[in-house]
Every structure is written in C-alpha cells, then in structure tokens.
Write a structure and sequence with these properties.
Belongs to the membrane-bound acyltransferase family. Sterol o-acyltransferase subfamily. By secondary structure, this protein is mostly helical. It contains 22 helices and no strands. 72% of the residues lie in helices and 0% in strands.
Length: 577
C-alpha cells in the first residue's frame, strides 16, 4: 500500500515537472549537455579506458626496462665467457709461437722488447761488454723445417743424394759390368780409428783427472796462505803448470798423428777434439779463476784442516765436479755453473740426427768421388795444362760449396743437436741465419755461434776490457789471427803439409771483407755468396792438387822444408803437372 503511494507521488511530481514552462538554457547548461552527448557517443573511449591504456603503457615500459636490464646482464656474461675462452686460445697460440723460439735478432721486429728492457735494467759497468746468455731455444733449421717450403729444399737435397747414388751405380754397371761403389774410400779415410779412440780417451782422462783436481787444490790451498808474497808465488807457480799442461795437450796428440800417419778423416777428428778440449779447459779455468782470486771468506784464514768447505755453493772458489763433467760434454764452449735444461730426452730425435750425420757422410763421399777424385788423381802421372787447371778450379766451386753446406749441417746442426738432446741441453742456438748475411762481419758472427761465443767471451771481451772500450781494432785482429791459425793448424796436420790457402783467405781477405759493412743488403748477400763459391772452389782444388802431388810426385826437399813448401809447386815447375 505504501509502495503504491510512493509510485503515485513520483508520477504526480513528474507530471508537474513536465507541465512547467520551457526556459532558455544557459551557456553552461548547453556545454554540460554537449559534454554528456560526447560521453554517450560509442566512438569515444571512457575515462576508465584511458586510465587502462595509461596503466598498460606504464607496465610495458617497466617490462621493457627489465628486458633491457636482463639483456645487458646476459651481454656482460657472454662477453666475460668469450673473453675467458679467447684468452685461453690466445695463451695456447702464444705458447705455440714461443715454442718456435724466434731468434733474438727478430724479437724486436715482432714487438718483443722484453730482452731489450732487461738489458737496460741490468746496467753494465763502464767499459764492460755483455755476457753470453743461455736461454731455452731450438736450432733455427729445426723450426724452419716445420715450414713446407723450407722442408721442400731439404727434400731436394735428399733427392740429389739419391740421384748421385743412382748415377754411380749406372756408371759402374756400364763401365765395369758390376756395381762397385768403392766404399773403401770411406774406410780408408777413417782408417786406424782405434788410435784415435785411444788418444781421445787419454786426452779426456787427463782433462778430467788432472785439470779439475789441480784447480781445486790451487783454489783452496791459496786461501790458507796469509802472506801476500807467498800467495803470489803460489799463483804464478800454478800458472806455469797450466801453461805446461796446455803445451803437453797440444804436443802429445800431434806426435800420435805424425807417428801413425793417420788418414784425413781420422786426423781431422782427433785434431778437432783436441782443440775442443783445449778450449773447454781454458773456458773452465778462465771463468773460475776470477772467482777464486776474489774469494774472500774469513773462515779460509784458518788452517787447512779446520776449514769446512761447502762444495755445493756457487760462491765456493771451485765448482762441483759434476758441473765440470757436464760442461766437458755439453755442446757449448762457454762455462756456466747452470744451463737451461729440457724435461726429457727424445731418443727418436737423437737417432734421427745421428742418421742425418751418416747421410751427410755419404753425401760427401759421392761429391768427392764424382767431382774431385777423377779430376786430380792423375796429377804427377799426366801433364795438366793451364787451361785444364783453370777449368778444374772453376769446376770445383759448386762441389766445394756443397761440401761447405754439408759440413755445416753435419756438425753444427745434426751432431750438436744429437748431443744436446742426450744431455738435455736446452739452448740450441749453435748458428744463426748466416745465409742471409749481407756482410762478412755478420757472417762470421752467425756462421758458428759456438766458436764465436768462445772467441767473444775469452778473447775479444778480455782484450777489450784491458785495452779500453775505444780500441776495438786490436781485439778484432787478435780474434781473426787466432781463428785463422787454428783452422790452418787443423788443415796442416790433416794433410801433413803446410799450404796456407785457408790462412790467407780467412785471415787475409776474410778479415778485410769484414770491415766492409755499409752496402746494400742484396748486393752484400750476393757478394758474400759469390766469394764463398770462389773461396771454397780454390780451397778444394788447391788442397786436392797438393794431396795427390804428395802421392804421385817425388819429394824435392828433405826435412822440415819438405813440409813447409807445397809439393804441387815443384811438380808444376818440373813439368809434371
């Protein structure tokens, strides 16, 4: 009932409102009506939709920011992982490059200035020269043979050896009807080798049993002598003993060579071992005598019986015998208490190097048999014209250069690498790239690094420090004099005659050429090789002529003059050549 009343009243009020007179709406009312119409239109979004879109945009921006942040974190992690992996790869790559042991002279070109900085840090006293440094490194050819192009050159030389063998076999078949390689020439060249072995054992025995005990006794005994005059007399007495020993070490092997008339290869082997032991003896004494003379420890002023000597110390006046023994067989002529060592011995590498030595010996055999013996063995039996002699000299230039290359490869590469591997001697820079030298000064420094280091350390360096750093000519001349005399000494007692061809070429023209340095590198290298071809051809031809002249021609002098004057000259003067 009450609800019906309320409906009625509402209807009445609506009717009354509709019946009111119409009035003109105000401007504000019109704007309100239009605004309501726009809001009721289906083409326009509501306020709630606008708020929803704004919220969605904010959420999207937040999500995008999070994604960017996660992407940055992922990018950083990936870069770190890639950096670790690349660093590991580069370390392995650099380790592989370092194992190649780039020669010291090329390291500055590759940007490796560590050695130069180390030398700058180690400032040398005024007027002194740097010492020889031993580091672990391969021989240059060992690394170069890893390159296919260089390995092909090695294969070419092997192919030439095979061709020489086939040529000799074919000629023997057609000329003699059988294969006659005449390996008796090799057996003859190394004949009476038991005398070489016995003499070598004696030289080594005295080097080990006499030199080291004598030096040990001198260096320790002198520390117990308080009086300076007596100590000076003691030192000079042992200096005289040292000179006497060196003279005996030269004389005794020579008497064996002359008494047994050893053939060329046997005599050369014994003479080279004699020179090697003499150089090692001087290196040991010279390197340690300064330490013994400067050694100043108060405990050695006590009587000899109360002295407690620590033999294992590097500061002792005399090193351990084990160090001396290792040095006697190590492939170096410069003494050090310690050398860089390898971890293990590769016996396959040792066998391969000795196999290369045997191969080079056969290479030399075929060169002499094919190019030397047929040309010169008729000297003294048949006359040889000047034209034939000149052609023979020029014909020996290429074989002589091959002999030079074979000797270099056999001794300085294969032989020394074999002993270095057996003794785990890590520094194997026995030579450098002498074939690229543009001057003889560079050639002499890089051809035989082992001998060069000895001459530099114990001859040039000592004279340089004594005479003053401004005087380099005299040490250089003395080095050339010693080197040329020793070379001629070996040649003289190998052929049992004095024919100073090598002395004049090496100590004369070679020394003069060493002062010519400011030339174009290409022209200098061509000049070096041209003169090497000419020099080796002259040496091979003249020494071969002298050898066969002493076999086929009668002697023209007696006694010492017969050794001093070449017999090939007398054969030429008498018309036998």
């Amino acid at each position: 009932m009450e609800a019906a009343d309320e409906n009625f009243n509402a209807s009445s009020q609506e009717c009354v409102r509709l019946r009111k007179p119409t009035t003109i709406p105000s401007r504000e009312q019109i704007e309100t009506i239009e605004k309501r119409k726009r809001m009721d239109s289906p083409d326009v979004t509501t306020q709630e939709d606008d708020n929803s879109l704004e919220n969605a945009a904010v959420i999207q921006q937040i999500a995008l920011t999070r994604v960017k942040h996660q992407a940055e974190v992922l990018k950083k992690e990936l870069i770190e992982q890639m950096d670790v992996q690349l660093s590991s790869i580069m370390e392995e790559y650099v380790a592989g490059i370092e194992s190649v042991r780039v020669p010291q002279k090329y390291r500055s070109f590759l940007g490796d200035d560590q050695s130069r900085e180390d030398r700058k840090k180690r400032k040398l006293p005024c007027g002194s020269l740097p010492e020889k440094e031993f580091i672990a490194r391969h021989s240059l050819l060992t690394d170069l043979f890893e390159i296919n192009h260089i390995q092909t050159i090695y294969h070419i030389f092997i192919a030439i050896l095979i061709l020489l063998f086939m040529n000799t076999v074919v000629e023997d078949i057609f000329d003699k009807g059988r294969i006659d390689l005449e390996f008796a020439l090799i057996l003859w060249a190394f004949g009476d080798f038991q005398t070489v072995l016995v003499t070598w054992v004696g030289m080594m025995f005295f080097t080990l049993i006499v030199v080291y005990p004598a030096f040990h006794y001198w260096s320790h005994k002198r520390l117990t002598i308080v009086d300076k005059t007596k100590r000076l007399v003691w030192d000079y007495f042992w200096l005289a003993c040292y000179i006497a020993y060196m003279g005996a070490a030269i004389w005794v092997p020579l008497t064996e060579i002359l008494a047994h008339k050893l053939p060329p290869a046997s005599a050369t082997t014994l003479l080279m071992e004699q020179v090697r032991l003499l150089m090692k003896t001087h290196a040991f004494v010279r390197s340690n005598v300064a330490i013994a003379l400067c050694y100043n420890n108060q405990q050695y002023s006590k009587p000899l019986g109360s002295v407690d000597i620590k033999e294992d110390s590097d500061q002792a006046p005399c090193p351990d015998f084990s160090k001396y023994l290792y040095f006697m067989f190590a492939p170096t002529l410069v003494y050090r208490n310690r050398y860089p060592r390898t971890r293990s011995i590769r016996w396959k590498w040792v066998f391969f190097n000795f196999l290369q030595v045997v191969g080079v010996l056969f290479y030399l055999y075929f060169i002499f048999v094919r190019f030397c013996v047929p040309v010169f063995r008729q000297i003294g039996h048949e006359p040889m014209s000047a034209k034939a002699l000149v052609l023979a000299v020029f014909g020996c230039m290429l074989p002589g250069t091959l002999v030079l290359l074979c000797g270099f490869f056999c001794l300085l590469h294969a032989w020394l690498n074999a002993f270095a591997e057996m003794l785990r001697f890590a520094d194997r820079m026995f030579y450098q790239d002498w074939w690229n030298s543009s001057s003889y000064a560079t050639y002499y420094r890089t051809w035989n690094v082992v001998v060069h280091d000895w001459l530099y350390t114990y001859v040039y360096k000592d004279l340089y420090e004594v005479l003053g750093r401004r005087n380099r000519v005299i040490p250089t001349l003395v080095v050339f004099l010693i080197s040329s005399v020793v070379h001629e000494y070996i040649i003289t007692f190998t052929f049992h005659c004095f024919y100073p061809v090598l002395l004049l070429m090496f100590g004369g023209f070679g020394m003069l050429f060493s002062f010519v340095t400011n030339v174009d590198p290409r022209l200098g290298n061509i000049f070096m090789w041209l003169t090497l071809f000419i020099g080796t051809g002259l040496c091979m031809s003249l020494y071969s002529m002298e050898w066969y002249a002493r076999i086929n021609c009668p002697p023209s002098f007696e006694g010492f003059m017969e050794i001093l004057i070449p017999r090939s000259w007398t054969c030429l003067a008498n018309g036998n050549v």
